[in-house]
Write a structure and sequence with these properties.
Strand content: under 5%
Distance between the termini: 51 Å
Number of helices: 2
Order of helices and strands: HH
Shape: flat
């Protein structure tokens, strides 16, 4: 099942809830598959939290690099 694209573009809280709803079906399928494979709900939850932490860590450097790149471009245009 494809993940639904956002329809709300301005209100942060609405977008967060909409994103949760868009991911929920796939999340339930993934957790059900893990349970059927023999993993406990606690193991699944811990694994999902770890994967989420890894995702956040992986996304942060690219955002920081983009910000630094924009600052460099901006400072060059000021000189």
């Amino acid at each position: 099942m494809p993940v639904i694209s956002p329809t709300v573009h301005s209100q942060q809280i609405s977008r967060e809830l909409e994103c949760q709803r868009a991911l929920e079906d796939e999340f339930l399928v993934l957790t059900a598959l893990a349970e059927e494979a023999g993993w406990s709900w606690q193991e699944i939850a811990l694994a999902m939290m770890e994967l989420t932490e890894q995702y956040v860590a992986a996304m942060r450097p690219s955002s920081a690099m983009e910000a630094r790149s924009l600052l460099r471009m901006h400072s060059k245009s000021l000189h």
